[in-house]
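Workshop exercise sheet. Pairs work together: one partner reads the sequence aloud, the other fills in the structure field after running the prediction. Swap roles for the next sheet.
Pair: D.N. / O.F.
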Amino acid sequence: MIAPRAGCYAVYEPPEEGWQDWQEQISLMSQELKTMGVDVVPAPEAVKNLESMERVAAWFMGQDIDLLIVLVASWSFDHYTVEIQQKTGVPVIIRAIPGIRSGSIVGSQQLNCLLHDLNIACRLYYGPIGDKKTTQQMVNFARACGIQHALRGARMAVIGRRTEGMTPTAVDEIEILRLFGLRLIHLGLDELLEIAAQVDVEEARFVWQRMVSGAAKVLSRTEHGINSARNYLACKKVVKQHGLSAMTIGSYPKCQGTMCLPIAWLNEEGIPTGCEGDVNASINMLIDSYLTKDPIHFGEMLAINEEDNSLVTSHCGCGSPSLADANGYILHPVRLANDGVCTRYTAKPGPVTYVNLVGRKNNYRLCAFEGEAIPTGMVFEGNPLKFVLKSPVRQVFADVAENGFGHHWMTTYAHITPVLSEFCKLTGLSGVFPDLKEVT
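Structure field:
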C-alpha cells in the first residue's frame, strides 16, 4: 500500500483580500490529508510573486512528489502554478475556499480553465477547510496520482508463455509501456527452472517446513513441497536480480501444482503475481495492491446467486495464506492434476472490490464493483471467496457483458472504486463502475 506524496502550497495576490490566513489554512488542510493517508510535503512559503514561485518550484523539484495541491487563498496570477507544474510535471489539485471578497473561486476557475486547455491533469474542488467530503475527493485523486507515479519505471517479469486458447490474454508490451509506464521483462520457463535446479535442497526443505508450520493440514507429498519451494526461491532470485514490482507465470497446464505455491507466497510477500501468463491480470493486481494492505485474490467469476445477490470467485489454489478465514489453509494437491502443491482455503470476510482489466491499444478498459465478503464452504476446490454485491448482480453481469470484460477477476480487501475511477480518467482507460453508475 502506498501513500501518495503531495506537494502543497498556497497562492495569493497581495492587493487582494482574505489571504492573510493562508498559513493556518494550509496547516489545517495538510493535517486533514495526513490523517487520511496522504504524505504532505508543504512548501516553505506561499507563492505571491515571481521570486517566491521560483523558490517553491525549486523546492518541489527535489521532493519526488506525485502531485501538486494548490490552495487558492485569494485571486492570483495563473502562470505561477503553470510554471511550477511545468518544472515538476505532475497532476494538480486546485482547492477553492469560501470568501466572497477573496476571489478564491474566481482564481480557481481561471486556473482550472487554463490547465485544461494545456491538457494538464487537474481537479478543482470547493469547500471550507475541514469539509470531509471535499477532503475525501482530494484523497481519491491523490491516491490515483500515486498509482500512476509508482507504475512509471516499474518492471514486471513475464515467465513462460500465456496459456494456449486464452487469446484475450495476449498483450502489446509497447502499449503497456506507453499507457502505464510499466516495462515487461521476458524469461523462458526453462530459464526459471534452471535457476530452481541450482537452489540448495536443504534451503528449499527449510522453506517448505516454514510453509508447513503455518498450515492447518498438509496433504501434499514432501518431495512436491520441496520442489515448489525451489521454484519459489528461484522466483525470489529473479525478483531481486531484475528489481521487479510484479510477475506473471505461464503456469497452465504444464506447471499445475508446481507454481501454485510460489505464486501464493510471492503475493503474500508483496510481489503481486498472477498465473496463466495473464499480463493484464497481473497489472491489475499491481494497481490494486497499491490501495490495500492485504494481498490480492486472483480468481474467476464461477457462480452467481440472484437470491442473495452474491457471486463466488476462485482459482485453483494460488491464493495468499493470509486471505484464509479462521479455518486456515491446507497444502493440497491441485485439482484436475491431483498432483503437486497448492493452497486450499475458504476466504475471509470483509469489504471487497472486484476488478477486471483487459484490452490492448486504444481499448484498455477496467471494471470495478464493490461488496462484502461473507463466509462460504469449499464450494470449489481452491480458494473460494463469496461476496454480496452492492449493486444488483444481474445488472452488473449485463455491464460486464456489454463492455466485453474478461475472465480473470482480482479481489481487493478494501472499497477502492472511487480511486480506480480517478485512475482511469488520469491514464485514459475506459472505466465501468456499476456502483457509481459511471462509464468513463
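Discussion prompt: The chain has a mean pLDDT of 95. What would you look at next?
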